[in-house]
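Suppose a colleague, Dr. K., hands you the sequence of a protein chain of 319 amino acids and asks what its three-dimensional shape might be. Before reaching for any lab equipment, you can write down a predicted structure in token form. Begin with the sequence itself:
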Amino acid sequence: MKKLLALIMTIALICGCFAGCGGAKDDGKYVIGICQIVKHEALDAATKGFKDAIIAEFGEENVTFLEQDAANNPDTCTTIVNDFVSKKVDLILANATPALQAAYNATETIPILGTSVTEYGVALEIENFTGTVGGNVSGTSDLAPLTEQAQMIIDLVPTAKTVGMLYCKAEANSAYQVKVVKEYLENRNITVKDFGFNGSEDVASVSEAAAAACDAIYIPTDNTAASCTETINGAVSPKKVPVIAGEAGICKGCGIATLSISYENLGKTTGEMAVKILKGEADISEMAVQYDNNPVKKYNKTLCDELGITIPAGYEELK
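The predicted structure, expressed as tokens, is then:
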């Protein structure tokens, strides 16, 4: 009898531990926490795509979104996700790397889906990352082919001898992208200089330094840069230095061209993953990180015209 009781208690404990890891609810109503590191075009599109996919499946009346903007402060991400955990939300969407890191450290039971995260191995310090995080975490990546972005610099600014890497030093995935692009360019005898800023407060001064020292600038999918494109453009435009951007929102604000994914589609894919988890149709611990395999070359006609840059065939005009 004691052995039977112990077995029942063990099973109950196991079920309790995994209760937060997804599964259909009797009432069909869900509460989803959304932590977005900062508001800008790309992340906003990902959140929209995510919500649209959820609502399309469950109906707007059956889903409550607790949507919070961390104002580009990682510490605020921690406060936000801890609040979600205390409220026992059914799932957390972590939009961008700092939000994912905060959620990852906050709970081991509530399902966490990241989006707009470039490289999960880098973000979560997972050595030899194979594509599946495991545990209660999965999501989607906004990684576009970095070597192709680097080649765009060579193709569009063939006279460039020095290229500046402009990015936020606090964003691990920005540093990862810069590393890959830098290696590609240096292997082709192009001088590369790093221009890392600490936050929005020194974007202008670092951008001005980059424009003064370089023939072209590369900006990865960087959240701080994405929220400061007007400042960056104000710094580089007088020097007529072309910028190649990691995503369309940055390109629209201060770049001449990009090879970018659709963040709205990325968010939709994340939402579809969430639906499967919430309905109990998929085990998040076994869900591989998903990618957008259809990046598109786009160009900013206004800035290209200002700089006298001719865009070859195969590029779409940014709208």
